[in-house]
Amino acid sequence: MRKLLLHLLAIFLYLPSQAQWPNGVTYEIFVLSFYDTDGDGIGDFNGITEKLDYLRGLGVEAIWLMPINPSPSYHKYDVTNYRDVHPDYGTMEDFKRLVKQAHQRNIKVIIDLVINHSSSEHPWFVESQKGPDNPYREYYVWRDYKEVKEEISKKTVSLDSDNLTPII
Q: What are the pLDDT digits (tens) for 2-15?
């Protein structure tokens, strides 16, 4: 057993860096501002696909896409549909082509899948607001308004409206 472990360790230590992902180079992409191929001023999947050789030349082993699902917010963290891509970025076929082309270049594709919350426009949330007996109600954590108001009154809001910090 010891001999096997030593062999495995030796193999691991001498592997080229490209095989060391996720310790290799990962390039985060905000699709909206990356590269526009259709002239609308918004980055898109085809723009990323077009730049894959350039990214590979930089030594990139993985690309990490910020949220790509439909969303009313510019950053796409307020998802309205988990089964589709935002139309500003292209089609699902464009996305699948990007993944296929990236894999052909040995580039992994990671997406920022926002599952800890959804948009207030998501059908589950809209349904959940209809009452405590709604089947989607348990998809969300509900708190009494008075409890929340009391908790917030003990905090101060910084310049980043999402950042609540305790008053000390």
A: 554 444 444 444 44
Main-chain dihedrals φ then ψ at residue 70, nearest 5 degrees? -55, 140
DSSP secondary structure letter of residue 19: G
When the candidates are 3.100.10.10, 3.30.750.90, 3.40.50.300, 3.40.50.720, the CATH number that belongs to 21-111 is 3.30.750.90
Q: Could you count the other beta carbons within 10 Å of the beta carbon of residue 125? A: 17
Please report where in the chains the tokens 């292209």 appear, as a residue. 90
- Read off the pLDDT of residues 33-87 as tens digits, 9 standing for 90 and up: 999 999 999 999 999 999 999 999 999 999 999 999 999 988 888 899 999 999 9
Say how far apart CA 43 and CA 35 lie, in whole Å: 4
Question: What distance in Å separates the CA atoms of residue 144 and residue 62, rounded to the nearest whole number?
Answer: 43
CA-CA distance, 52 to 109, in Å (whole number)?
11
Q: Which of 14, 20, 43, 16 is nearest to 31 (CA)?
A: 43
The tokens of 25 are what? 């180079």
Length of the chain: 168
- pTM over the 0.85 mark: no
